[in-house]
Amino acid sequence: CGTSQYILPQTVSHGQYCVKPFECCVIVASHHQVAGLTLLAVGVYSARNTTAVAGRYIEARLGKPSLVRETSRITVGEAIKHPIKMAKRLKSKPQDALEGVVLSPSLEERVRDIAIATRNTRQNRGLYRNILMYGPPGTGKTLFAKKLAMHSGMDYAIMTGGDVAPMGRDGVTAMHKVFDWANTSRRGLLLFVDEADAFLRKRATEKISEDLRATLNAFLYRTGEQSNKFMMVLASNQPEQFDWAINDRIDEIVNFALPGLEERERLVRLYFDKYVLEPATGGRQRMKLAQFDYGQKCSEIAKRTEGMSGREISKLGVAWQAAAYSSEDGVLTEAMIDARVDDAVKQHLQKMDWLHGEGGEEAEAKSTAAPLAGGTGSGGKMGFNLPLSEAPQAEAVIAPALGINTKEEGKSIQQEVTPAPSDMKSAIPEKEEVCDDAVKAETQSLDQPAASTPSEDRMENEGKTVPSPQKDGTPV
């Protein structure tokens, strides 16, 4: 190609012909371009696949699955956004499992044993035990699960059962991602499932969709054996709805009941210090507190808040703080505290009425309305009241549908039940026997008067006549 002479005939893709040096250089350059484009395509394809694989690996190791609402594990996004917070978390020491958690003495002793056993299990790389915590809302189940993970040096992840059903067909894949992500934890993971009864229902009796059933089966598959990588903690308000296979995977059952008088007083003092005393005595003096006996007031509030949960008492402390901030001078008085307690007690009673199927308006009507004439009436859970004066009428309407004949004699009602269909044949005599008995009865009635029965005598005393036998011989 460097000479200016014609070259000899050569084979260039299509037959033999002579080409000039310039044409030869063009053909060689075109072959180099094709090879370069091919190598570029291979590089792009390989880079894309490698990036996808690396992304999945990073997501499995550090990324948070879509079903996990909250976690203490360090993710890439949180490490970039909050580097100081992540550094403090890495240097943090194990905390007390019951710090800030107020429980009864017996329950406190039991959960402390669970916390110690979990911590020793992690240190010895043993198999974790699965726990079920049940009880009313706001009794400290979620708080204890977080404290348990921090005490044992584990990471925690919180997911809720209500997020599983809306995922549909993607629920199975999302569930497998959660457990794959849990198995990659070096410190061990405490997987806390709140409102677990939302998707762990009975497959035999409950009506659940096929997608939710498949997700439940995936959950059962991943929890069939105990693991040394993760620990499962379930929380539910209705544990009787669990599938039997879920109950078989539970090793420890803990009941978080409503706080008693002593626990309520500890909770009131705790939140009074947190939301009232600390802001009032702080450096900024954000609020002021009037002079009264704080300890005596907390004891009185504990007696008045019977039946309330720890969450309701904590909201009561927030209400005290809001009352001080809303006042003109920023002073929280004893009267303001009592007013907020009265409102909280009324709201709690209204919630209990809703829980037992009685509406707030019906309860208010019962307490304020005057009794009706003729009776107070009978109330129902559906809000339907039936006066007592209408009870006989209702019985008379319902009786024919039940096969009951009612006769009103004065103020009492006597019911005569008609014979069942199965007994009708035995109650009806044969035709020949009927005729013979009828003839004999008519003959005896001509000779002597018929003997009266006690019921007939009673009817005669009431002024009613006894029906006589028919002339055709048909028995009465």
TrEMBL record:
Domain (AAA+ ATPase) ranges: 127-260
GO molecular function, one term: zinc ion binding
Transmembrane regions listed in the UniProt entry: none
A Pfam family assignment: AAA
GO BP annotation list: mitochondrion organization
UniProt cross-references to InterPro entries, sorted A to Z: AAA+_ATPase, ATAD3_N, ATPase_AAA_core, P-loop_NTPase
Cited CDD domains: RecA-like_ATAD3-like (cd19512)
UniProt keyword annotation of NAD present: no
Segments of skewed composition (Polar residues): 442-454
Segments of skewed composition (Basic and acidic residues): 428-440
Compartments where located: Mitochondrion inner membrane; Mitochondrion matrix, Mitochondrion nucleoid
Keyword Disulfide bond assigned: no
Domain of life: Eukaryota
Region annotation Disordered: where it falls in the sequence: 359-378, 407-476
Keywords: ATP-binding, Coiled coil, Membrane, Mitochondrion, Mitochondrion inner membrane, Mitochondrion nucleoid, Nucleotide-binding
GO cellular component terms, semicolon-separated: mitochondrial inner membrane; mitochondrial nucleoid
Homology family: Belongs to the AAA ATPase family.
Protein name in UniProt: ATPase family AAA domain containing 3A
